[in-house]
């Protein structure tokens, strides 16, 4: 887990870890059961086939347990996703425009730039629009991704907690030069950002 970049990434990584652990438990359980039945019901021990009657308790168990596990994964994942959709009232709004094959950013004072700059510790709200085809705004280090669709404005929110430079990618195939649709997000001190954004 990447500590300190954003609080949200720890929640996302925890959901993935939770799902992986459940998947491993199920995999091990199914494998052990399968091996057990291979030995218990092999041809040498059971030369004559027998009709095995149903077991109501067992059937209820194998329906109930997977259902509860699936609901737990859904609840944990949805509660984490919900925090991403809750935008703080003091969030800075930045308009993001996607087009083949680049990103551009417009700030509240009208400044436009081809690279994303944000102040550390400040909640950010990105308003996402595409002027041509489907794109997907993705910052891997922050574990955030949102589709950018023509004719519809989407949004995402995050708070950068660590100064640094991180990759921005398009996670939706958008044409011939899709793989070149990379950019950077620069998380800088607030004083430095205020100075930078004031220069048009």
State the gist of this model.
The protein has helices at residues 7-40, 56-85, 190-198; strands at 92-99, 102-106, 112-113, 116-119, 124-130, 135-139, 144-148, 154-158, 164-170, 182-188. The chain is an alpha+beta fold.
Please describe what this structure looks like:
The mean pLDDT is 90. β6 and β7 (144-148) form a beta hairpin. The protein has three helices and ten strands; from the N terminus they run ααββββββββββα. Helix content is 36%, strand content 28%. It is elongated and about 85 Å long. The protein folds into two domains: 7-85, Helix Hairpins (Orthogonal Bundle); 92-198, Immunoglobulin-like (Sandwich), CATH 2.60.40.420. α1 (7-40) runs antiparallel to α2. The protein is an alpha+beta fold and 200 residues long. The chain has helices at 7-40, 56-85, 190-198; strands at residues 92-99, 102-106, 112-113, 116-119, 124-130, 135-139, 144-148, 154-158, 164-170, 182-188. The protein has a five-stranded mixed β-sheet with strand order 3-2-1-5-8, with no helix packed on it. A five-stranded mixed β-sheet has the order 4-10-9-6-7, covered by helices on one side.
């Amino acid at each position: 887990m990447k500590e300190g970049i954003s609080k949200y990434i720890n929640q996302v990584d925890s959901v993935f870890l939770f799902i992986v652990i459940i998947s491993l438990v199920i995999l091990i359980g199914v494998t052990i059961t399968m091996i057990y039945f291979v030995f218990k019901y092999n041809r040498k021990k059971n030369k004559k086939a027998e009709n095995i009657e149903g077991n109501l308790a067992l059937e209820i168990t194998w329906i109930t347990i997977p259902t509860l596990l699936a609901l737990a994964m859904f609840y944990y994942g949805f509660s984490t996703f919900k925090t991403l959709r809750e935008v703080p009232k003091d969030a800075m709004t930045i308009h993001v425009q996607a087009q083949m094959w680049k990103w551009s950013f417009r700030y509240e004072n009208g400044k436009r730039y081809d690279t994303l700059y944000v102040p550390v510790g400040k909640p950010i709200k990105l308003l996402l629009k595409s002027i041509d085809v489907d794109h997907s705004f993705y910052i891997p280090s922050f574990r955030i991704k949102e589709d950018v669709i023509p004719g519809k404005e989407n949004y995402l929110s995050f708070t950068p907690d660590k100064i640094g430079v991180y990759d921005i990618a398009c996670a939706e195939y958008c044409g011939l030069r899709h793989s070149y649709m990379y950019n950077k997000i620069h998380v800088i001190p607030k004083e430095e950002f205020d100075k930078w954004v004031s220069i048009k």
